[in-house]
Amino acid sequence: MTTRLRVVHTTSFRYAVPVAASYNEARMTPVSEAGQTVLSTRLTVQPQTWSTHYQDYWGTAVTVFEVLAPHQSLLITAEHLVEVADAGELIAPAGWDVLRSESVRDALAEDLSDTATTVVPDDVVALAVEAAGELGPQEAAAAICHALREQIRYIPGVTSVHTPAGEAWAARAGVCQDIAHLVVGALHSVGIPARYVSGYLHPVPDSAIGETVSGESHAWVEWWVGQWYAYDPTNSAPVGAHHVVLGRGRCYDDVAPLRGIYAGAGAAELKAQVQITREA
């Protein structure tokens, strides 16, 4: 199955008083790759400003921009038209002997190492070991996702994007970022290379062509079993034609959609909205 999705992601900041300047990095541009073709993409900033682009260490497209004139609001609009295909069948996934080989552990060392956000407590390690049992790596990874998801309630607002996995686990609650962090750490604990993926999700698979819905900034995981396999643990399903990839990294901090600072007093009010239209 292939879908064509138009994504419009708007982020606005309103400052209590005018600020003198702001300096920002946006990771809000998808990249073309196997299974995902970017037909058009545009990122605009108001007030108008200069910008430059580069690809970061993790392969994510980054737009750097700054506003040097006094301003009391900032609006960033990212609009993309993307064709996304369902993933093909996973053929002959690697066994534990391959994953435990020195060459794989060296090549994928960063995908086996935890950050402060993905490190998991001992009881999660025990749960992962029990779920994996005598299964092969592919089946073990799916079983670990299922075991964790059964114990985590999806509740917005109880965590932040920087909440460590251990805190979300203690609360047994969180959102997609927390579930992805927990799964990455749990997979690492049994020796399966895994990474965090940031993107968008069209939440209504059977929506009519031309219908615009409120979409979601979303997070899921990929694990390596001879090839990378994408899975959405929040929704307990393989990633498919309703997911749009923005970037990959060790955790949220590597792929935050927007990061910046501003020079001025007072707080900033943030609003964000994602709208997705299925065009084919």
Explain what the structure shows:
With about 280 residues, the protein is an alpha+beta fold. The chain folds into 2 domains: about 110 residues, Immunoglobulin-like (Sandwich), CATH 2.60.40; about 160 residues, Roll (C8orf32 fold), CATH 3.10.620.30. Helices cover about 20% and strands about 45% of the residues. It is built from 6 helices and 16 strands. The strands form 4 sheets. A 5-stranded antiparallel sheet has the order 3-6-1-16-10, with no helix packed on it. A 5-stranded antiparallel sheet has the order 13-12-11-9-14, with helices on one face. Strand 7, helix 5 and strand 8 form a beta-alpha-beta unit. Helix 3 packs across helix 4, helix 4 packs across helix 6 and helix 5 crosses helix 6.
Summarize the topology.
Blueprint: E1 2-19, E2 21-29, E3 36-46, E4 50-55, E5 61-67, E6 71-85, H1 96-99, H2 102-107, H3 122-132, H4 137-151, E7 153-154, H5 165-171, E8 173-174, H6 176-189, E9 194-201, E10 212-214, E11 216-224, E12 228-232, E13 237-238, E14 243-249, E15 258-263, E16 268-278
Parallel strand pairs: 7-8
Antiparallel strand pairs: 1-6, 1-16, 2-5, 2-15, 3-6, 4-5, 9-11, 9-14, 10-16, 11-12, 12-13
